[in-house]
Amino acid sequence: MQADKLPTFFEQLNLQLTEAPNEVRRLFHGRGRRFEGLEQLTCDWVQGQLIVAIFKQVDELFIETLKQGLATLSESDLWQHKQGKSIVVQHRYADGAPSEVVLGELESQPVVHESGLKYQLNIGRNQNFGLFLDMRYGRDWVKENSKHKNVLNLFAYTCGFSVAAIAGGADQVVNVDMSKGSLAKGRENHKLNQHNINQVKFLGYDIFRSWGKIKKMGRYDLIVIDPPSFQKGSFALTKDYKRILRKLPELLAEGGEVIACVNSPQVTSQFLIDGMKEEAPALSFIERLDNPPEFEDTDPEASLKVLRFK
């Protein structure tokens, strides 16, 4: 990346911060490749905290120019108006993705708002802080389309889809994820929103070894599939996704719907469309949900794909 391109970063940052609602929000998405020389840089607004992530090692000039610009921002009227508290630079390319606090004090477990719902994040220790911001419209769709439904949330992570579904009036959500720690955070997210936990199940299992348990709680009116692109020893997207699609006919209720997601730049929407035709031909492709505008990409097929089938 190029230090002489950073004025573009700060121009966009000021513009987006000015317009940002009082919610968690992506402010700069260099990975959409719309800003030459800044392709490995992102910036998120975490309601008072600015989290700048660098995805590829850069030279000292870039770091110093970035920090100087962030210091200037922290002295601006805009920063005061937005009640900015801290600025963190996360080195995502480095082992452990270390975070460097360049202003104020990091609040590592803030509670943030999105579309009227609350989520607790975990900043500074992991590559991901507990809520994928590009999935906002997906969570909104689930919230708007879950009333009185039995919902299955595969690869649930911290249960963002589950929170949205219960908020939208779902009768039950079954969350499945190998990480019991992530599911515990999901339980806390439901509690933050004062949801009835009796309506929510948390299954800390390997999905491929647990179809029997999953089937017992079906059939499902809505199934959400949002896997990682790769998880060592447990999931490889292009190899394992079809194994899930194959199970859909025996899990879905009549008239049921599927939200199938993929977030690998190497895998296109057509992979899911063709895979569904092959493994679950009774399901028809309906639409691809939009991504939030702040995640615009020069190649839409390289960004998050959220596809709806029925």
From TrEMBL:
Q: Which GO terms describe its molecular function?
A: methyltransferase activity
Q: Which GO terms describe its biological process?
A: methylation; rRNA processing
Q: Does the keyword Iron apply?
A: no
S-adenosylmethionine-dependent methyltransferase domain segment(s):
25-310
Q: Does the keyword Metal-binding apply?
A: no
What are the record keywords, sorted?
Methyltransferase, rRNA processing, S-adenosyl-L-methionine, Transferase
Fetch the Pfam families from UniProt.
Methyltrans_SAM (PF10672)
Top-level taxonomic group: Bacteria
Among CDD domains, the record links this protein to: AdoMet_MTases
- Know the name of this protein? Methyltransferase domain-containing protein
